[in-house]
Amino acid sequence: MITQKNINTFIALALSAILVTACASPGEIAAADRGKCAGYGFAEGSDAFANCMMEADMHRKDQQAAFQRQQQMNWAMERENRSSDSMKWSEGTCRSSGGSISLWGITGGSSSSTCSTGH
Fold first, then answer.
1. Helix axes 47-90, 26-39, angle to 10 degrees
2. Considering only 23-27, 63-67, 81-85, 91-95, which range has the smallest mean pLDDT?
3. CB neighbourhood size of 14 (10 A)
4. Residues ≥6 apart with Cβ < 8 Å to 110
5. Which three-class secondary structure state does DSSP give residue 106?
6. Residue closest to 60 by CA, chosen among 31, 28, 20, 27
7. pTM above the 0.90 mark?
């Protein structure tokens, strides 16, 4: 079951990964990947080293894509929430007797008005 806590944890981890790579130049990222792959014992220039570099790049791209998907889902949920709130607001009614009502209040004549939200 997906909970808000799980979503928040995922977002925090994905954002951290993206921020780390967003603040580094491509050369710095490649140097960090080279250091990591060399630290695993792969000799630079070997097939294993090339695979390690490729996997590190693919992992970073997967994290970025996951973060973007999560952001799009969050934005869609936010739009849905705003739409739902807007619908609730538009369900309200106002009645006026005499005078006229503007967005800022009564503009003329003696009047009374009642408004309700239907809730």
1. 130
2. 91-95
3. 19
4. 98, 99
5. strand
6. 20
7. no
